[in-house]
């Protein structure tokens, strides 16, 4: 009798696995479509992106010596060029500052200032722990309404889609120079598609980021001459 039951049990298990796989695939495809539909028509090349008051640079890896990784440096260089071209008036650098020995926003801010972006034009958000948090805090804590989101080109659709779903008037410009790091670029592309599922969950639940008092750094940066 057990020998006869085993094939049926295996079939049920196989059906369950296949069902879960299909549901997961559907969730992934649907999430990517939901995010990208919000970003459609709002992604630009560096040369033709419309001006906005603020560039939001999303954080990425910082090396133990405090220097930005190549991917993060490319984002910062792009934001600096936008500032130099008069496309933005201020730059909001948003990243992870969970541990005392790891500080993305300070590394990002220092990098820009060392490259002659005025210190009073670069504002740090120390609680941009992920894309959703960075976008939500830009609006709710820093009072940003219109923004150019800056990241790698594979990440920008998710970032802009998230920002727009949160009520920001956001456009995006993506860095392509880091594509020369072929394997990390491919890995980033894959991770970004999967991250769309979390982004949709955050947007549907309207998860609160780390909150606090209103920050006026961007207001000051836009008023500074």
UniProtKB/TrEMBL annotation:
Organism domain of life: Bacteria
InterPro entries membership: Cell_Envelope_Assoc (IPR051599), DUF218 (IPR003848)
Name recorded for this polypeptide: Vancomycin permeability regulator SanA
Domain DUF218 residue range list: 54-170
Listed Pfam families: DUF218
Source organism of this protein record: Microlunatus panaciterrae
